[in-house]
Amino acid sequence: MSFDDIPNTTHNQLSFDLEIVVEAEIDGVGMGVLGDGTPFLTIRGLARMCGVDHTTLVKLTNDWGQSPTKGREQKIRDLIKAQGFDDTVFFHAVKKSGTIHHAIPAHVCMATLEYYAFEAVSENSHAIKSYRTLAKKGFTDFVYAQVGYNPDGKVSLAWQQFHDRVSLVANAVPTGFFSVYQEIAGMIVPMINAGVDVGPHIVPDISVGQRWAKHWKTENLEVLYGERKQYMHEYPVYFPQALSNPQTPYCYPDEALGEFRKWFRKTYLEVHLPDYMNSQAKLGKVKPAIATKAIEAFKPKKIASKK
């Protein structure tokens, strides 16, 4: 992220007394929960749900509070006040590992989504869909369910291990490339929700990475998308795999992201995941009933026929 992509942070936006206890990126939407239980989206996550480029929201936050107030900001601020919240702060700036992270709370997310869904000049079906999803499920319940946060403040071991791995990978991949681990977060989350103890002994990204690498070479995708690269990846220190840190898995050109996602949905989830989960069950790493539940979670949803 370049300097121009980073929002200006004022004193009243700093929340050093809070910490991020759990976070994840699901389908490209960054989200998490702060130490006081506040659910949030990242700026990029909110932008994705709104169907706009993240730099649009960065500019909005940088202009926030300037006089005179511009039309878009004023409308969003009015929507925030209509919910009974303070409209002077767009995000909370929270320090984590020495870096400031920008956490946008529920009321700001919903007001911004409402603006892009119903108030903006141009029609935005993506924002409308996102707004209705969050309005139906409730923002807090939606984020809690996605990241696996327990309202009593305790995070399960599997979630903590997932969180620790995500944190280590976050800034390890070079610009212009994607990692398999970051991309399959949307698979790992339902697995944990199904009761699979994803951690040191069940590492699904290795299975995905090996299958994808084989597909990459078999289909000679380097010719289409360019060379893949190795990057430095480390497991949390309490993982047995950490003894051989740093690992050097491959990351792939962003141009191949669409190809990967298509292959992942149609080939890995439908063909290889059942084999992987059943093999883990045979090894005693997961109960057969839980393996079956995890497999069922990824079966394509049937669309009811109209009568």
UniProtKB/TrEMBL annotation:
It holds the Pfam family BstA_C. InterPro entries: BstA-like_C (IPR058744). Residues 159-282 form the BstA-like C-terminal domain. It comes from the Bacteria. This is BstA-like C-terminal domain-containing protein.
